[in-house]
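Record copied across here:
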Amino acid sequence: MSPGLRLVSGSEAVLKFQRAGWSVARQKGSHVMLTKPGYQWTLSVPQHEELGPGILKKLVKQAGLTVEEFNNL
């Protein structure tokens, strides 16, 4: 059985997505926008101390990752 999603801060999430091939396109206010060639989504990651489980699951799904892959990054 796979482990659950580990909650992380916004800056930790950005680093994990960068390891998965996403790059920072811009930042507007407290949100960092990440893009990746060939993907229709632009990930908008809020820079909070801890991201809620709902927004984090949505971002992981939009990034095309599994929870296990995200946790291992």
